[in-house]
């Protein structure tokens, strides 16, 4: 029994690590797509794309994943990808938005709907939850090794054109108008800051506590969506219990 228990624990940690890695790859794939879409799909002519590719390599992202993300943006192979957003409720009534890049909307819609159904949630109509989110630019700077006080960071962020800032123990979160995100990013980089995140995203206006008896289903939904290659982003308004894994 002890051997089985040990295997079960190790397998559980491996599954958690795989899920975390999947979310990292998902985020990088989206960044690759956006960088290639906004500029030249050839990294030799696109500095932003080169930076994201370097980040992908640092995260040990497989080359096939990198190539697939760039191909989606450039239309290599003749496939035409569309950006589609799905809205729904996770278990516990938590608002969730799913952004996808797909060459087959029927396939993607079916997979997203199944993910919600499997977890005990429900897919809604367009506009059913999007009003609960605000579209903002988000820039994150890690505090580890950064010799800056919260006041100094706030002043630099405001000087760069940011609207607001939130500080946690791990990082500074800087919020901007979506149209100003790039200019604020560039201004902070010119000041010497190394940015962990610089993106336009959807921020929930409020968080909904996930009931303890719904945590497993909630995590299952997020994991199933994350595992879908068509899904580029998941915006969710859930607040998990502090002791939830």
From TrEMBL:
Residues 1-22 are annotated as: Disordered. Pfam families: TACO1_YebC_N, Transcrip_reg. The keyword Transcription regulation applies. The keyword Oxidoreductase does not apply. Residues 81-236 form the TACO1/YebC-like second and third domain. Residues 5-75 form the TACO1/YebC-like N-terminal domain. GO terms for molecular function: DNA binding. It comes from the Bacteria. SUPFAM superfamilies: YebC-like. PANTHER family: TRANSCRIPTIONAL REGULATORY PROTEIN YEBC-RELATED, TRANSLATIONAL ACTIVATOR OF CYTOCHROME C OXIDASE 1. This is Probable transcriptional regulatory protein KSL82_08060. It comes from Limosilactobacillus portuensis.
């Amino acid at each position: 029994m002890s051997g089985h228990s040990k295997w079960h624990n190790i397998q559980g940690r491996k599954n958690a690590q795989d899920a975390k890695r999947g979310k990292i790859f998902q985020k990088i794939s989206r960044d690759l797509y956006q960088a290639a879409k906004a500029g030249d799909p050839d990294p030799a002519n696109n500095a932003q794309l080169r930076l994201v590719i370097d980040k992908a390599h640092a995260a040990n992202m497989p080359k096939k994943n990198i190539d697939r993300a760039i191909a989606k943006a450039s239309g290599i192979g003749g496939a035409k990808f569309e950006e589609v957003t799905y809205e729904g409720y996770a278990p516990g009534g938590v608002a969730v938005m799913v952004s996808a890049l797909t060459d087959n909307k029927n396939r993607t819609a079916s997979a997203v709907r199944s993910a919600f159904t499997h977890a005990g949630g429900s897919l809604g109509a367009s506009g059913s939850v999007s009003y609960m989110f605000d579209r903002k630019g988000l820039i994150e700077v890690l505090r580890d090794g950064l010799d800056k006080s919260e006041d100094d960071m706030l002043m630099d962020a405001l000087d760069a054109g940011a609207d607001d800032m939130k500080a946690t123990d791990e990082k500074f979160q800087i919020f901007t108008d979506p149209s100003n995100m790039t200019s604020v990013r560039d201004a902070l980089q010119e000041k010497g800051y190394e940015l962990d995140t610089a993106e336009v995203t959807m921020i929930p206006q409020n968080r909904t506590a996930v009931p303890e008896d719904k945590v497993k289903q909630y995590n299952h939904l997020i994991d199933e969506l994350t595992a879908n290659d068509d899904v580029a982003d998941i915006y969710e308004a859930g607040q998990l219990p502090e002791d939830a894994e």
